Amino acid sequence: MNPFEQSMKRVPNNVPKIIKSEDLHCDKCDRNYTLATFEDGSTTKVGCDCEMIALAKKQKENHFKRIQRNKANKIFSKSLVNQRTQLARLDNYLPETDNLKKALNAAYRYVEIFDKEKPFSLYLHGTYGTGKTHLAYGIAHELKEKGYTVLFMNVAQLMSLIRSSYDKKSDYNELEIKSLINDVDLMVFDDIGVSESNHSLENLFEIIEMRLGKHNIYTTNLTAAEMSRDKKWQRIFSRIIGESHRFDMNGDDYRMKGIQNDS
Ligand SMILES: Nc1ncnc2c1ncn2[C@@H]1O[C@H](COP(=O)(O)OP(=O)(O)OP(=O)(O)O)[C@@H](O)[C@H]1O
Ligand SMILES: [Mg+2]
Ligand SMILES: [Zn+2]
Fold first, then answer.
1. 254 lines ligand 1 (CB under 6 A)
2. Which residues form the IstB-like ATP-binding domain (predicted)?
3. Which ligand sits closest to the CA of 25?
4. What's the CA-to-centroid distance between 100 and ligand 2, angstroms?
5. Mutation to probe ligand 1, out of 122, 134, 157, 256 (largest number of atoms < 8 A from CB)
6. All domains of the chain, ordered by start, with CATH?
7. Using CB atoms within 10 A of its CB, is residue 106 exposed (0-12), middle (13-18) or buried (19+)?
8. What is the pLDDT along the chain (263 residues), one digit of tens a residue?
């Protein structure tokens, strides 16, 4: 009888009895250990802690993942997005033409190869209602689920949030908003290009400038000519285009689906 079995003999009766005990060796920690099997089928190793160490490591990893996911959820919830768009996912986007299929594939690929160290931006351009916002939100949602920090901002709403932050009673201050945008792993600028006051434009320019060289997605339905309509826009636009992979998403307005046929 080995020392382990001797010590187990002193254990009170209500503890399950050992029905088998094997002397084995663990190659990982290079130690001899005893594998005891209890009458209820459970086992325990005495002399090797490798499994316990692996379990503790896994629990620690899960704990950090949970913290990261909570952080990602909290940040994502500050997004400025309408309710309908919140239902948009990559797998509920049904492309009807080749160029829209191409854009959907690019969206999946974007999620797949997302790497914090290798910044990569998308510029989704096209006519109304072709799903630019849908795809941008779909990507944002997937990456948030993976634990990345993501913000999705409708640009007009973002500008109005910044304007309202000057009000002393506001819950937000301008610097907090900007630093949040600065720090996220992915920033979505949805519907960029709608007319802005000069002051807003300065803010937008500052925000885009500080995001350069990071992961960004821009959606717009303005043409290149419209985007370059004045010097200030040209300045912003050239920076966006300079760092982005561009996808043209032209097509029928999905919002009008079914409506044309009813008349
Ligand atoms: N191919 C599609 N499959 C499923 N839903 C779609 C598709 N295209 C658009 N939609 C839906 O139609 C609505 C309009 O799409 P979305 O807002 O993404 O268009 P957009 O290209 O951003 O338009 P805009 O240029 O006006 O901003 C959304 O509710 C979106 O979920
Ligand atoms: Mg849109
Ligand atoms: Zn071991």
1. yes
2. 121-257
3. 3
4. 14
5. 134
6. 3-48 (no CATH), 80-260 (3.40.50.300)
7. middle
8. 776 667 666 666 677 899 999 999 999 999 999 999 999 999 999 999 999 999 999 999 999 999 999 999 999 999 999 999 999 999 999 999 999 999 999 999 999 999 999 999 999 999 999 999 999 999 999 999 999 999 999 999 999 999 888 887 777 788 999 999 999 999 999 999 876 777 788 899 999 999 999 999 999 988 878 888 788 888 888 889 899 999 999 989 998 886 654 44
Instruction: Name the residue with the closest Cα to ligand 1, atom 9.
Output: 131
Separation between Cα atoms, residue 171 and residue 64, nearest integer Å: 29
Q: What is the DSSP string of 53-106?
A: HHHHHHHHHHHHHHHHHHHHHHHHTT-B--TTGGG--GGG----SHHHHHHHHH
Query: Does the beta carbon of 177 lie inside 6 Å of ligand 1?
Result: no
- Nearest CA, atom 23, ligand 1: 129
Ligand nearest the Cα atom of residue 84 = 1
Return the ligand number nearest the Cα of 45. 3
Rounded to whole angstroms, the Cα distance separating 164 from 173 reads: 9
